[in-house]
Amino acid sequence: MNRETRIEADRAAAPAAPCSRVGVALAALGMLLLCGLPAAADTPRNERPFDGVWLAFSGGAGASPAWPTDKYTPAAKAAIAAFEDKYGPDAPEAGAFCVHAGMPSMMTSFAGYPIEILTGERQMNMITETGNFRRIFLDGRAHPTDRPPTSSGHSVGRWEGETLVIETTGLAERLQSRQLSAQARIVERLYLIDDKEGVPSGGIAASMQTERGGKILVDEITVIDPTFYTEPLKFVAHYRRAPDTAILEYDCGKEFWDEALEKLARERGKE
Hints:
Blueprint: H1 3-13, H2 25-35, E1 52-56, H3 74-87, E2 115-119, E3 123-128, E4 133-137, E5 154-160, E6 163-169, E7 185-194, E8 215-224, E9 233-241, H4 255-267
């Protein structure tokens, strides 16, 4: 599927606007009366409560939460074994070649890379300093059925009071570290809590310049992948605001990792 076809798939999944924008005040008022006001219960008091730059600070020693390896299904074990047979058990991690981590790793990394959240009228954008980018559509659209899988998948969100519930599907299969099948689904619950004693703290970002005493962003993550795991996997990430931190450029390319894997396969006679 080329880029234009993918764009059309996203557009087709978006709901049609109930009212057209008009250029005169009288027509705008008429449309407002015709369409009615949105339900207040579906929108938090602050429509952009998560906007800004954040640093994850819990998890300990700068590592992401441990990924359980004792819950693999037979299908997962077979797929992982085939990957290791072709490339070897010590094949380099994709991240060593700057390949984007994708979901859910981009939300559970405590290595000190900030993430910026920007909310627009129809979507929320999340950008990490490592080059990961995801869009969470907030306009009620469904997941497209003909969109190619990607490392970050396709995300839609809805508000439950002041909690944003995000569902992500369309994920590419991953067979090396934090493995996922193409049928995986990820559900997140994002909300704010008060920064106070008792909140877990650790990782590289714990010693970096973050805002204390304000709000903490909590991301509760559930990975639902019955093809690869015998039960859902659950993780929690905590973030503090980093208002004086800028997102820097992180310029890398996937082709270097592809070349490294192809070289390993040739050396093992697995072309």
